[in-house]
Design goal:
- The protein has about 60 residues and is mostly beta strands.
- It has a domain of about 40 residues.
- About 0% of the residues lie in helices and about 15% in strands.
- The chain has a two-stranded antiparallel ribbon with strand order 1-2.
- The chain is globular and about 40 Å long.
Length: about 60
Amino acid sequence: MQEPPRTDWYTLAQNVTSTSYTVPELSPRRDYMFRIRARSVDGDLSAPTAPVPYYRAP
């Protein structure tokens, strides 16, 4: 996750086995960017997806 205007990314969760994830404690009226990586059963990590912007309404 990234919080613009910051440029660093940080990991929200690891070893998520479902097809969805709820991000806890997002702040109202803040912009967030997300990207996803996948790990294969062999342990190989994919490249991250293109960033997806998200804005949480009040």
